[in-house]
Amino acid sequence: MPYPLDIQPFFDPVTNTVSYVTSDPGTMECAIIDPVLDFDPRAGRLATRSAKSIVDYVQDHNLTTRWILETHVHADHLSAAEHLQKVLGGVIGIGDRITDVQRIFADVFNLKADFPVDGSQFDRLFHDGETFTIGRIPARVLHTPGHTPACVTYLVGDAAFVGDALFMPDYGTARTDFPGGDARRLFRSIQRILALPSSTRMFVGHDYGTPDRKRFAWETTVEEQRRANVHVRLGVDEDAFVLMRANRDTTLEMPALILPSVQVNIRAGRLPAPESNGVHYLKIPIGVL
After folding, report:
1. Whole-angstrom Cα distance, residue 117 to residue 274?
2. What is the rounded distance in angstroms from the CA atom of residue 57 to the CA atom of residue 23?
3. Helix spans in the chain (H)
4. Would the N or C end of the chain have less CB density within 10 A of its end CB?
5. d(CA 22, CA 180)
6. Cα(29)–Cα(188) distance, integer angstroms
7. In the 8-state DSSP scheme, what is residue 65?
8. pTM, full prediction
9. Nearest-5° angle of CA 265, CA 266, CA 268?
């Protein structure tokens, strides 16, 4: 008999990101997954409106924050992990292949030798198959790369938090054209996810709606994905998926916040160090992506 698990989603309409607080009602211990830090790129200003909703929920429900978990280095929003850790505590965790992503983007942004590419900006680097707990609830990490080299899925009780590997069945799957992305690896990662028990609840990292579905959604099941995912349902083979992704990805624009997001997110939600005038700066490489 699985332990009960409370899951509270937080949808950010600016970036179409879904963050989650998942908690054990028996111990009141929780994990925060993929939190958003608000950023106005026109003014270069940060805000904590989205993070405050999470803080209020955690405090109003008397929860203790054990973990702040990232499914990957996001390209569409800045992470609020550092801010939430300062306010609520908790251990910031991510998959151990973050080091691959750091190496890639250290080159893209020409970062200096004082930027370590060993994942040390994070408190915990999870290996594939590693287990941990949220209160009494068992959790396990699956390395599910393809969208990025470091993507992971967190299996918590009977729930899978898949990040960007899969979206709602009527929207499909993640793009694979970012540096380090790979459509074949994504297909094989998705097969790992779809091999979970059919009743496994699945919580996605984004939703954009569709012409036929106006309301945003973020919860589905493994069974629904196997049966109805428009990109990778049962019967779609690897070569067909790779061709589809290659064709589709060429039509997609880069996310509006990819350049600031990645620079912050490879640092576990921290800005680059301030310069001699006390100001933090984010770089814009020209013609690289």
Report:
1. 19
2. 11
3. 49-60, 81-88, 98-108, 183-194, 222-228, 238-249, 258-265
4. N
5. 30
6. 33
7. E
8. 0.96
9. 60
CA distance 73 to 54: 20
Along the 289 residues of the chain, how does pLDDT read in single tens digits? Answer: 467 899 999 999 999 999 999 999 999 999 999 999 999 999 999 999 999 999 999 999 999 999 999 999 999 999 999 999 999 999 999 999 999 999 999 999 999 888 999 999 999 999 999 999 999 999 999 999 999 999 999 999 999 999 999 999 999 999 999 999 999 999 999 999 999 999 999 999 999 999 888 899 999 999 999 999 999 999 999 999 999 999 999 999 999 999 999 999 999 999 999 999 999 999 999 988 7
Q: Is the dihedral of CA 91, 97, 103, 109 positive or negative?
A: negative
* Cα of 180 vs its chain's centroid, Å: 16
Q: How far apart are CA 125 and CA 113, in angstroms?
A: 21
Which of these, 51, 41, 59, lies nearest to 80 by C-alpha position? Answer: 51
171 contacts: CB under 8 Å, gap ≥ 6: 207, 208, 209, 210, 230
| Environment class of 277 (CB within 10 Å of its CB; exposed 0-12, middle 13-18, buried 19+) | exposed
At residue 175, the 3 state secondary structure works out as coil
* Domains observed in the chain: 6-254 (3.60.15.10)
- Indicate the length of the chain as a whole number: 289
Neighbours of 276 (CB within 10 A): 5
Rounded distance, CA 158 to CA 196, Å?
A: 10
Listing DSSP states for 178-233 in one string gives STT--HHHHHHHHHHHHTS-TT-EEEESB---BTTB-S---EEEHHHHHHH-TTT-
